[in-house]
Amino acid sequence: xxxxxxxxxxxxxxxxxxxxxxxxxLVMVAVDGESMAPTFHNxxxxxxxxxxxxxxxxxxxxxxxxxxxxxxxxVVPDNRARYMVKRxxxxxGDPVPLERxxxxxxxxxxSVPGGRLVLLGDNPQSYDSRHFGYCPGExxxxxxxxxxVKWKLTTKEM
Length: 158
Description:
This protein is of the alpha+beta class. It has helices spanning 2-25, 129-132, and strands at residues 26-30, 45-50, 61-65, 83-90, 116-120, 135-136, 140-148. The termini are far apart.
């Protein structure tokens, strides 16, 4: 009898623990705009693993918090999305990509300083480090794990 109680409690408790873990470690983000085209398009949904800056590698697609954080630099985008999806081109310790981000030509250091990222969109028209320079690491949300496929039901499937 007691084994059955533990079995039922375990079956009820395990999904709850899994959901709590997923909410803590994962977040789903919708792409807003075409800055990551052709990799991602407006409306794509992405599964993002929350992570620290130290775990980001060059060429990872990352999600960072809203550009409202850049108000002190005087550069504000027209659309105030909650998150930005960009590619991390350089992480702390990497060489500063001066040829790709001319705005950073005035920096004195040869490598990206600690706590900073250089972000570029895959679309050359993207609002990214070419406009605002380094991105503070504290704005990092996580690394994109995969695109979530939208399922469309057709009349044959219903």
